[in-house]
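Write out this protein's structure.
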Amino acid sequence: MNFPELFIPSDIPSQAPGRNHAALMIGGLSDAGEIRVTSDERSRAMTMRDPATRDRFLKTRNLLRKILSRWLDVDPEKVGISVGDSGKPFLIGTPPLHFSISHSQDFIVIAFCGSEIGVDLEKERPIDTVALARRFFTSEEAEKISAAPLRDLFFRHWTCREAAIKADGRGLAALLASTRVTEVGGQTMKVHIGEVNWSAVSWKTDGDYHGAVAFREMPSLISWCDLR
């Protein structure tokens, strides 16, 4: 998975990222290894009717817990993770560490930072980008996308928008109508949710995956590690 030049390839940091450092961890659903999650998470998974959704949930939580256990020096099952009213998971206790999860096909991306962060990953697919842009985006965005010959611009706007909404934490349904995206230059976008502005960096990989990570405050270091 290729990332922008401003993202630095790295091993897993020895310590949890601080406020000025974001770390993106890439995993695969096919190589999760031993699943170490809590009994509550297993019970939650059993309520999911679709076996693929159940498998993805368990393997994603497994990867999240294994990474956090290294930084917190506790067993993966003992990492304190709770879920907010809107369904966003968060780490209980200290150190202050924010994370965001996204997956598409066989990829899992988990983004960590000492301040608010959101990440989104989407596999490009044959959809009516113009109709969707007119339905969910501002008129200015929809006009740009309708004039674009490829789907790239739509997916850039969508992933940046969803990454910022996930960082906000109040949910896609609550915020989609009040969100707009403006281009800054290169792979950087601004996402405006009401009066709050987020900075987002987008990328596209071989295999037509589109991704974006969003911040309230752009960190001085963004590193990534492929754990597959």
